[in-house]
Specification:
Structural class: alpha+beta
GO molecular function: diaminopimelate epimerase activity
CATH class of the largest domain: Alpha Beta
Pfam families: DAP_epimerase
Strand content: 35-45%
Shape: globular
Order of helices and strands: EEHEEEHEEEEEEEHEEEHEEE
Largest sheet: 16 strands, mixed
Catalytic activity: (2S,6S)-2,6-diaminopimelate = meso-2,6-diaminopimelate
Main location: cytoplasm
Number of domains: 2
Pathway: Amino-acid biosynthesis; L-lysine biosynthesis via DAP pathway; DL-2,6-diaminopimelate from LL-2,6-diaminopimelate: step 1/1
Number of helices: 4
């Protein structure tokens, strides 16, 4: 499956359990010798929800949240669902050719990002090359967001890994760059922790929207254009982030890995 080109191998383990670890995740994600994907998604039964979801990046690291993958879950299951994740309970509803997901409230607390030491998350007093003073936010996983004049002029493939592995981010970090075209429209690119440059990052879109709202750059609803397509983000009355966009089933198969 994929969400705007951010592609997944989704394992349906609701009935029969499937063991996934870092080595198996890397083998599945390898685009030359495995199936190939940005993330591996394991859908299991839920004890207090309809289903559960675990997520591994292509490098084998397990993460707590993935917005694009969350939209795939109700499409796979065929109905609206509650989903237990390491980041908490999410609710996803079928809509059009995809889904709308309540991603919960963003956190700007430095401990929640987390950062190695306390600092102002509205504008971290840090710089990497031409990128400086990002907003830091956690939307189930950690992100920094830079607002720039031109997202295509930034060498994200070079700066992305430098920022991701900076020791100020003890759990590493996702890196987003964005340019605001209007209060209800922006363009962005993401260097994803454990995956690199991606065509789309759902939590990155949520983080970027949340950062734009924090800095009064964006309206309560906005369109975010990513290399793989567009997402719609909105802020609910209680401060939750609502993400809407497509989710696509590509094929079903079996593999011996």
């Amino acid at each position: 499956m994929h969400g705007l080109g951010n592609d997944f191998v989704v394992v349906d383990a609701r009935t029969d359990p499937v063991a996934i670890d870092a080595d198996r995740a890397r083998a599945i994600a390898d685009r030359h010798t495995g199936i190939g994907c940005d993330q591996i998604i394991l859908i299991g039964p839920g004890s207090d929800t309809d289903v559960s979801m675990r997520i591994w990046n292509a490098d084998g690291s397990e993460v707590a949240a993935c917005g694009n993958a969350t939209r795939c879950v109700p499409v796979l299951v065929g109905r609206d669902v509650s989903i237990r994740t390491a980041a908490g309970i999410l609710h996803a509803a079928l809509e059009g050719d995809g889904a709308t997901v309540d991603m919960g409230k963003p956190s700007f607390d430095w401990n929640a990002i987390p950062l190695a030491y306390a600092m102002d998350t509205r504008a971290l007093p840090l710089a990497w090359g031409e990128l400086a003073n990002p907003v830091a936010v956690n939307v189930g996983n950690p992100h920094v967001v830079f607002f720039v004049p031109d997202v295509h002029a930034v060498p994200l493939e070079t700066l992305g890994p430098d920022i991701e592995y900076d020791l100020v981010f003890p759990e590493r970090i996702n890196v987003n760059i964005a340019h605001v075209l209007a209060p209800d429209h922006l363009v962005m690119r993401t260097w994803e922790r454990g995956a690199g440059l991606t065509r789309a990052c759902g939590t990155g879109a949520c983080a970027t929207f949340a950062a734009g709202r924090l800095l009064d750059l964006l309206a309560p609803s906005a369109r975010l254009d990513l290399p793989g397509g567009s997402l719609r983000l909105a802020e609910s009355g209680d401060g939750h982030l609502l993400m809407s966009g497509p989710a696509t089933h590509v094929f079903t198969g079996e593999a011996s890995l």
